[in-house]
Design goal:
alpha+beta, Jelly Rolls, about 290 residues, single chain, binds fe (ii) ion, eight-stranded mixed sheet
């Protein structure tokens, strides 16, 4: 009988990964752990995100997303977000004149990128010994939480995310980034779940997104095509954790369904590796990276 993918494992209570789980991660480039997070913790994080949206004044960033001709301003708002809590709009929530066309709670694409250090609710979710155990079993000598994102994937207008490798955006020498993707609601093919190219983490890093003299640019490293035949939908239930290897190509389609698809992600790097100083994400000296404790 052929195996159905993704293979899913019940999440270990203490976060420890079995040899079978580690073998699946090494083979596929992803690992789906069912029920890693208590549903109540998912709801609490969602409530925190909604509070941040409620507190947010769209005037702060409205110009950022109002027209494509103001893209440079958007870059500034984005560039400075590595050690802040900032909110980014759905492309389809802003009209050509810069007006928000849906209610604010339905207009935000994501929040990033340092809630895990700046917001008590996100901090409690992100820093704990269960995740520390998972990271240790993945091989991290000194896991550091580099980036957090709350992704709304709004009903009807949730934007697609094109196929990419996380190492493109957050590069260390040697490579170490791993993505932790928490489903805060059920994620299905209907509401824009993740897809991965199974096993393609063994291929080269294709692109580099970096800061070149103050400008964020994409550079091609390798033109090898994605193997679309390896595509697997990573459907996940509320509370599941999906681990993503830093070279695993993954993407998600637009959400045209009436249901949102909230998810929370953490990107972890190893402090034993060198964080390249031309990565887009920078933090001030008063915001050193922390581990899971
Ligand atoms: Fe990603």
């Amino acid at each position: 009988m052929t195996e159905t993918h993704p293979v899913r494992f019940p999440a270990p209570a203490d976060g420890g990964l079995t040899p079978e789980m580690l073998a699946a991660f090494a083979r596929d480039g992803y690992l789906v752990l069912r029920g890693y997070v208590d549903p109540a913790a998912c709801d609490a994080l969602r409530a925190r995100a909604e509070a941040l949206v409620e507190e947010f004044d769209p005037a702060e960033a409205k110009t950022v997303f109002s027209t494509r001709t103001r893209a440079h301003s958007a870059d500034d708002y984005f560039k400075g977000s590595g050690d802040k809590i900032r909110l980014f709009f759905e492309e389809e929530a802003i009209d050509a004149d810069g007006n928000i066309t849906v209610e604010k709670s339905r207009a935000i694409n994501k929040i990033g990128h340092a809630m895990h250090d700046l917001d008590p609710g996100f901090e409690a979710f992100s820093h704990n010994m269960k995740l520390a155990r998972t990271a240790a079993d993945l091989g991290f000598a000194d896991p550091l939480l580099l980036q957090s994102m709350y992704i709304f994937k709004q009903p009807e207008i949730g934007g697609e995310v094109l196929c990419h490798q996380d190492g493109t955006f957050l590069l260390t020498e040697p490579e170490s980034v791993i993505g932790l993707w928490f489903a805060l609601e059920d994620a299905t093919v209907e509401n824009g779940c993740l897809y991965a190219l199974r096993g393609e983490h063994r291929g080269p890093l294709r692109r580099r997104y970096r800061n070149r003299d103050g400008e964020l640019v994409v550079e091609n490293l390798d033109n090898a095509p994605w193997d679309e035949a390896a595509r697997v939908p990573l459907e996940a239930a509320k509370g599941d954790l999906v681990l993503l290897h830093g070279r695993l190509p993954h993407f998600s389609g637009p959400n045209r369904s009436p249901r949102s698809r909230h998810a929370y992600t953490l990107h972890v790097i190893d402090g034993a590796c060198r964080y390249l100083d031309d990565n887009w994400l920078v933090r001030g000296p008063d915001m050193p990276l922390r581990g899971f404790a």
